Amino acid sequence: MRAYAECLRQPHVKHLVTSNIIGRLPNGMGPLVVALFLRAQGFDYALVGVLGALYGIAAAVGGPVLGRFVDLHGQARVLLLSVAASTLGFLVLSMTSPDQVALAGVAIVVAGLFTPPLEPCLRSLWPTILETRRAVNAAYALDAALQEVIFVAGPLLVVGFINGLGPAGAVVMTGVVALIGTIGFVVAPPVRRWRPEVRHADWAGPLRSGALRTVLLGFLFVGATLGMLNIVVVAYSEAERSTSLSGLILGANALGALIGGLAYGSRSWPGRAYSRLNLLMFGLAVGYLPLAFAPPPTLILPLALISGLFLAPALACAFVVIGENVPAGTSTEAFAWLVTLFMMGNGLGTSVSGAVLDRWGLATAFVGPALAAFCGYLVLAVSRPKVRSLTAQEPDDVTS
What we know:
The chain has 17 helices and no strands. The chain has helices spanning 2-9, 13-40, 45-73, 75-94, 101-113, 118-129, 133-186, 189-193, 210-239, 245-265, 273-288, 297-308, 311-325, 331-360, 362-365, 367-382, 390-393.
């Protein structure tokens, strides 16, 4: 655990992590609060589905765009302007009614499109404020592990806000939470001091990197793995006549990711980051294999925990590969692209899993997550992009 201690001892680290996680809680709140509010207002399920998809698409599109603006103009200004626009979108949405479909749609798009890019901003900061490569890698692992907290705590906050403030109040509070967390993050001195690196003018930006393109394609399949799992466990819970089982399964999967991420970041790892990422992606795929056999309720929770063990380590290692292999001045946009491809994969996985369930049933649908995870591994294993790795050569060099 010395790597974590070294990381957390540095000035501002605890503040940055805490405020960033708070500001990102709406990532786990937004889809649910939008759907519940629209239903409470009387929107039919078909329209709720369309508008909910709009929110996800807008957030996926906005991430890389805002990331590029950060790389060009700095973090503080872009974060404040984007969170103001996103909060306004949630506020307008909270005041819409069923006869204002267009206004609700615009508000949802604005709320999603301007989701503040806190995630990529934090990852771009680490190499500038942490003194050793080991501390940077530990910070990436801690970030990847704590990400699971967002998707566990976010829905719980939505339920609490709805019970206390009603659906409209919950929508408003989703924007307020983002605002509070983002302002807390921006007031930190490292955020205000951060300046963009000089970059080569090129429309492709970080996508010029073959390593980044390979990682993005691989994590498209990782996102699909989780999207498929989300739908499959709901059908499994219904088949077992249990209203809580789906939440327990997803919670066990998230707990596994948290445990795996913390364990991974607690030590230094030899070898090149890209080769290590290949191994972690293989471990992720193997971890999902037992679930492909639709295990009974007595086994599914421990197997769900095992399936999550390699997710956060794979993400943390992907952060290292991206940070080491994208052109100067494009790191924030690069990390934003990872979020976007992950979200796109999640949406595709959800759609595919739903179609498989309707046509071939639960047993076949359970194969989907493992198959998608193996596809992600194969993308990295077959591709041989030109990569460089500071980790293999300079394990404790100063990176600031």
